[in-house]
Amino acid sequence: MRMQSGLPKAQGMYHPENEHDSCGIGFVAHIKGQKSHEIVQRGLDVLINMTHRGAESADNKTGDGAGIQIQMPHEFFISQGIQLPSPGSYGAGIVFLPKNETNAKQCLEIFEKIVNEERLQIITYREVPVNSGCLGEIAKSNEPAMKQVFITGKYEQEELDRKLFIVRKLSENAIRNSNIPNKEAFYFPSLSTKVMIYKGMLTPIQLKEYFPDLSDRNMISAIAMVHSRFSTNTFPTWDLAQPFRYLAHNGEINTIQGNRNWMKAREGLLQTELFGKDIQKLFPIIEPGKSDSASLDNALEFLHLAGRSLPHALAMLIPESWNEKNPIPESLKAFYEYYSTIMEPWDGPASIVFSDGRYVGGTLDRNGLRPSRYVITKNDIIAMGSEVGCQVFPPEDIKVKGRQRPGKILLVDTKLGIIIPDYEIKEQLAKMHPYQQWLKESRLILSDIPVRQRVPSELGEDLPKYSKVFGYTKEDLEMVMIPMATEGYEPTGSMGNDTPLAVLSERPYRMFNYFRQLFAQVTNPPIDPIRESLVMSLTNYIGSVSKNVLVDSPAHCKSIKFKSPIITNTDLAKLKNLNEEGFRHKDISILFPANGGEDALEKRLEEICIEAEKAVDEGYNYIVLCDRGISAEWAPIPSLLATAAVHHHLIEKKKRMQVGLIVESAEPREVHHFACLIGYGASIVNPYGAFAIISDLCQKGKIKHDYVKARELYIKAIDAGLLKIMSKMGISTLRSYHGAQIFEAVGIGENVINKYFVGTPSRIGGLGFKEIQEEVLKPHREFFQLGLNGDLKTFGFYHYRKEGEQHGWDPDAIGLLQWATRTNNYSKFKEFTSYVNQRNQTPLFLRGFFGYKTNPIPIDEVEPISEITKRFITGAMSFGSISKEAHEALAEAMNKIGGKSNTGEGGEDSERFKPLPDGRWLRSAVKQVASGRFGVTANYLVNADEIQIKIAQGAKPGEGGQLPGIKVNKVIARLRHSTPGITLISPPPHHDIYSIEDLKQLIFDLKCINPNAKISVKLVSENGVGTIAAGVAKAKADVIIISGSEGGTGASPISSIKHAGLPMEMGISETHQTLVMNNLRGRVRLQTDGQLKTGLDVVIAAMLGAEEFAFATTALIVLGCVMMRKCHLNTCPVGVATQEEELRKRFTGRSEYVVNYFTMLAQEIRELMAEIGVRKFDELVGRADLLTIRSFPNHWKAKTVDVSKLVYVPKEAKIYPIHYTTPQHHDIDKQIDHELIRLANAALKSKDKVWIAKPISNVDRTVGAMLSGEVAKRYGDEGLPHDTINVHFTGSAGQSFGAFLAKGITFKLEGDANDYLGKGLCGGKIIVVPPTGSTFVPEENIIVGNTLLYGATSGEAYIRGIAGERFCVRNSGAYAVVEGVGDHGCEYMTGGRVVVLGRTGRNFAAGMSGGIAYVLDVDGNFDYFCNKGLVELTPLESIEDIKEVQQMISNHLYYTNSSLAERILTNWNEYLPKFVKVLPLEYKKVLEEQKLMQLQAKLELTEDEPHRRY
Amino acid sequence: MTVPRIEAGNRPISERLEDYSEVEQTLNDNERQLQASRCMDCGIPFCQWGCPVGNTMPEFQDAMYKGNWEEAIKILHYTNNFPEFTGRICPAPCEKACVLNIHEEPVTIRENECAAVEKGFAMGYIKPQPPKVRTGKKVAVIGSGPAGLAAADLLNKWGHTVVLYEKDEAVGGLLRFGIPDFKLNKSVIDRRVKILEAEGLIIKTNTMVGVDVKGKDLMKEFDAVCIAIGAGKPRDLNVPGRELKGIHFAMEYLTQQNRVNAGKEFSPEERIHARGKHVLVIGGGDTGSDCIGTANRQKALSVTQIEILPKPPVKRLPDNPWPYWPSVLKTSSSHEEGCSRFWSLSTKRFIGENGHVKGAEVVEVKWEKDANGRMTMIEIPGTERIIQADLVFLAMGFVSPVHEGLLDELGVEYDQRGNVKASPDKRTSVDKVFVAGDATRGASLVVHAIAEGRKMAKHVHEFLTKNA
What we know:
The complex is a heterodimer of chains A (1510) and B (468).
Chain A: E1 21-30, H1 37-48, E2 66-71, H2 74-79, E3 90-97, H3 101-117, E4 121-127, H4 137-140, E5 145-152, H5 157-176, E6 195-200, H6 204-210, E7 223-231, E8 247-251, H7 256-266, H8 292-305, H9 310-317, H10 330-340, E9 350-355, E10 359-364, E11 373-377, E12 381-385, E13 398-403, E14 409-413, E15 418-420, H11 422-431, H12 435-442, E16 444-445, H13 463-469, H14 474-487, E17 492-493, E18 515-517, E19 540-543, E20 559-562, H15 569-578, E21 585-589, E22 591-593, H16 600-617, E23 622-626, E24 634-636, H17 639-652, E25 660-664, H18 671-679, E26 684-686, H19 688-699, H20 707-728, H21 734-737, E27 743-748, H22 750-756, E28 762-767, H23 769-784, H24 811-823, H25 826-840, E29 850-852, H26 865-869, E30 872-874, H27 884-897, E31 926-929, H28 938-942, E32 946-950, E33 961-963, H29 970-975, E34 984-986, H30 996-1009, E35 1014-1020, H31 1025-1034, E36 1039-1043, E37 1052-1053, H32 1054-1059, H33 1064-1077, E38 1085-1089, H34 1095-1104, E39 1108-1111, H35 1113-1118, H36 1141-1144, H37 1151-1172, E40 1187-1189, H38 1232-1239, H39 1241-1246, E41 1250-1256, ...
Helix pairs in contact in A: 3-5, 8-9, 10-11, 10-12, 14-19, 14-20, 16-17, 18-20, 24-25, 24-37, 27-37, 30-40, 31-33, 34-37, 38-40, 42-43
Chain B: H1 13-16, H2 29-37, H3 46-50, H4 57-65, H5 69-79, H6 83-89, H7 93-97, H8 109-123, E1 138-142, H9 146-157, E2 161-165, H10 174-177, H11 186-198, E3 202-204, H12 215-221, E4 224-227, E5 233-234, E6 247-249, H13 250-261, E7 278-282, H14 286-297, E8 302-306, H15 333-336, E9 340-342, E10 345-353, E11 356-369, E12 375-379, E13 385-388, E14 391-394, E15 398-400, H16 406-410, E16 433-435, H17 438-441, H18 446-466
Parallel strand pairs in B: 1-2, 1-4, 2-3, 4-16, 6-14, 7-8, 7-14, 8-9
Antiparallel strand pairs in B: 5-15, 10-11, 11-12, 11-13
Helix pairs in contact in B: 2-4, 4-5, 4-8, 5-8, 6-8, 9-18, 13-14
């Protein structure tokens, strides 16, 4: 597949498939369709006002892309003297062409030929005037030639548009398949009778400059749809600028790989009268090598031109959530369900604006993870954008201020001059066909099908055979299956994975072990599948005769519906027994002859594919891949391989849509296995082997349930695990996860991948069919030939076993390290390192493949130890996960050697911020900001040398965390600003980082509050992490951490520890290479971690690209950790990972040991540097050319590995820096705060009260943070007295208004605000009121954005108007009053008070474990909108509650002059009964206990002092 | 960690000195299960690493804790043929490496092992499991100590026909004749041997290979020959007066008492008895300790034990950290029963009266590093004194296996120390002759012998099946 023009080809660890982008989007339209130049102008303004959402490249001038779509500017063309027929009877568009004129001509020749063949005529070409002078160098390097082409033909307008579509598709294909040099440049931004798109690799401001056309007064339109792009690379790509032909997209399609595959598979079935035979000309529907957004546009365009309306097509592609937790009509649910049987969702965070020239509108994905705000004026202008304030209108003109809601569509029909609200659109859609009736008639529900034949779960005497041949171990049973079948969820483990990659192990593994789960980081958020279950679904279908998605009929939904993809033996029999038209199945055995020679497996696999294809041809509706019947002669093909092979073979043959794939296998047993099977095409899995074992375990009493119950729990655990794996990638539905291949293969060879795992990244080579066969046959032989058929043995996969799998940390390694560091014995230390290094070369980790070239120099020429220890950091481990003693010992040691310790998520005692009188300093130099924002206050942040944004963690990337209430003692609760005993949940995503531009915003926030601190971003190694890192570098991070998946954890599901993320070596090399190629490497420091132990480990990591090194497990082991792997149980016997008073006494570590370790490590590094011949460490960084590669010819698996990509040196390394050279430019010098600080001087110096007034606009971001930093630096946690600094703003505030606002500062905003208002509020006060003169009703309009008061610890907020989604998310102490909120209000809240004087969205109080919310239940249905998982709802009864609510509302009235507040207070008796108190159950218990204790204390007091009694 | 370590403890001294029955007591099942529950199922079971046979402590103790005795025994038998021996007399390196031993309260692994296996016998879970198929291969195992026994057991279980040769009248080697009954009751060995025989193991006692049967005949008859004859040659003390009567190798003394306990009679001349005598034990190891226990049971007047090395520390020194084997002072149950212990004493000469030993002259020594960094002993002048002794036992370890006879006849190569030289896969220099245990690694623990025997069996099995 050819990649798009500007992106480099795949090289080294880099692959262009991984590129991401995200952006600012918007439109401006005149509702009544009045065309004007003003609309175009306003569109461009919207773009410019969102410049900060885009990004610039390394040349600081090239934009990532900007563009505008307008209605066909007929008037403009006429004014340019072009002779055109009437509007609608011609089409036009800009065509990008190669700069080289000959090549351009060649392209146009092909194009013109096609135009003629399709019986159209070219009217003329027009040279598009451009101003290339404004371009940045990078953009210029690839600037295409541009022409506008005008085409006509004797067709109706709609027909003409379809013809133009055909012409474009045919030209694209023909030129793509031609040999024309520079053909990559050929591209049509649009070709239509209705719209015209101007776009390019520009910044928003450049768009207007570059295309003078856009400034022409005759350039008029009633619609202007715009987009500015933030891409993760700096490569010149003009065609990836948006808008695309029909839409502009802000977000990410997580399931894109699957969606593209399925679209391809569908092509064989597509038919429509509109195109007739011409439909063939449109294939491939999805243009190869384009972005996810472009692919989505391709699909939308196709569906639309094939006859579906835009809203209809969008509702098919990006359906809203329709499970029982969503308040939409049944008829609409039926509509969605019907289409869900024939089209999988394109899932991911998405804010979309779309237009076809008549309609213009916007929609959000089901989660609503992207912001989208709109304003409608009294003179019929509507402006929608990612931010409010990107269009300024006088307050008195504003009619409505609103926001897009998750899953909803807003549509403007400029022809009829109306806005069509979502419910009306959806009602029309739902009425198009009798969907409910169709479903009832055609769609079967599995549980409703009667049982004809029960199939036993037991395997009887065959059980040992199956369990041995399929490689079950005692650990599988004890550590995975028994807990699942007993508890109903996946077991938790701790510490990292230190076993070798499957391909580096001498032992046979299941094929699943070669696949690592991918996860979302930065460019899109993971989801919380528990707290936000309303968007999640495991429902899937199988069956159906035909899937022509272009027509609708009842037969389309002729399928069987499942609630879970895991089915019992009896359910499988039900399916097999159906045997009626539309439900016929074909069994295919996936066994191969064990004695059939070296290629028996490969041959059999090919046969299976042919059998499957034949089954499709014969009209079977589903294929059952079955591995029953193993024997001495027959061995099983890995179920994953068989599934993927059939899936891809049928896609290739365009026969995949016709059948469903069912896997009946004894192999899958744990969650990851099922995820793999589904990810590679299985619809349903029947794990009969696992069931047989569970049944046996029940009989033996090892599972304390009866079998039926145990099986139910086991399936439940798998279901929950699948949801977790999907949500990690930000995917909500199994329908879209199905076949989406969200995996990277590690250790599977190219021929296997290219044949049967098409599209899966696999970068270090690995097993071929021969080795895969050997892997299957090893256990098979052991059973059948050697007769080793005793009980199952422990494999040593999770816990070390003497005879088991190797572990990086084994008793010798730990023993020697502790010995060496406790006695400061360098020769012991060398014993430790040589032991570890020698074992690494077995090989254990990928680093074992590397040696180094030598060129010795005297060691005294090498820089001193102190220069090297600066590069050492201890891993992020919160005080909470580890004990106070351990936490402080690390900090003290790192401060002593000039390295850094990392506080982890959970705050730090401010006592530790100042050095002790004896010179010891217990402050952690690195302060972490993680998704829970625990303990993140202004004072915390200003006391950091580096602030680390933790995006992901090696052991559980993409997942949240939870500190159970029992572990939250007084100190921890104080530091985390919570209440002892309350469970603290860290959400999977940062709720202020759903995309790369959000991360840029958070970096900016943190830089503002502490301009002296470096900002680091912690990522986890996975395929594409380099590209993400490039985006992070462009988002202005100072340091990027690439964590290896071997990193430790205090608690994580064991499948995540084992199956997510990649080794450090792969991540750091990919990142380094990608950054160098982008010329971004010099701007950031790269840090890495993951099983680093010895000097050699460090030196290898450095040569691969890292310049700083983090050690967590190693440091803990030095302090006494013995890898109990019990951190999650609080029972650490050495007092390291526990808060238990008694256990902490057992802590034997000392900070000196840590000092000893790092000093000896640095010395060893110096010795290695002397051997290699470098004097300064910087000279080592990125020098992959100094590495040598070792091979392992005698290792049956490792010999297939090829690590050469890891040491690839891109050619750019010759011209660009290969280590950190230049600091980032953070652009904080223009902050309003500088002036605020100057004006508040008196307050800061002597606590005098000051009053300040300022205008503000949405480009003023993070206002108040820098000021708060100043307050915190001077006054610490204490802050200033309330209302010391008073600032009155007017206008639209930018994002993060009042972030980290410290105590003593009061911000009043007259106007409106964007997302993240009051983020991390710590004591300050924020008031938002609509501007004077506005006439809209505040309590019915949106005046502030999403995610307000995120992680607030104290302070107050009063908002006169409605807030967006996730109001007060993770609030732990702020008091807030608001007049209505969107979805997910008070999510994860742990403290504080919230009063909502109006409606709430769905899922209110999800994950809320503390604090209280009072909601005015206007409609009496709050019950439905509240997630009652953790809370109880009661009326307002106690005097204290009533007083509290009254006081807060009265404050609200006082500060905002809210008429609603006034009405409520003056009619109190009428309103009181409508208030609902939302009280977390845990919190209630704690409050009651507190009360009881107070009472007891009082009682004791009176007992002791009887004289007080009277 | 809420359950403290509880040791079953020993019977009262006054009681146990009156007999040769086992000193150690047992806990009831409930308490035993509680003790097993103290195992924390460590992510890294250092205990298993420390254990020469690699017992999976977390697994068998978890099974015990859950009351699955049968499973616990099964798990023990995966790694150890004779948990009933090690459960009694192993110095338990596992417990030394136990994570809870960082704070000196390790799980009572040894006692748990013993309890599990006794429960297994009591419940009838341990019963003969003869192999279903015989391979037709024949193996001779020479020496029925723990190494030979373990090897013979495994090879027999895998279906080979195994003949176990023993020079003495009963199976067990040092297990039976070296270790006193008060530490290991010999019925424990008999019980196991019965099972082995029922499984088809052929045992030939009173058969000294090299004498009664010639090595070369074995080589003809068997597909593989395994040597596990132990390190039979004791270290002697060549000082003036060595020839005096009343000076014996420890093993003579211990063996005789064990035989007496087994019902054999000795003439007064032959009999070595400590009643009414002052006893001196030279050598501070386990054998010495066994002599003390035996002498006390024989009602010696006094018992003195001397050791040439310095007194070890009571607690670990910084340079001898967990989880490694601790070089610390060990006080056995025999020590508790009464004796004087001295360290850093070198024996200069024995003093006799009428050809019979009356005492030993000793001198204090100190240990210093010489120019090459080797520890060397230096006598401290003027510290000579005499220890009264009517009976002296030399318990200073063993030199090597006995070369004369079998080994020399087979022509196996020796290493520098005189042990049989073995390759990593336990082969000697002679084709199809394997070796294991003290005969190759030098005198060591029973548990090492079992580990060695198992290892040898594995390689013999590979050798036999590969050639098949």
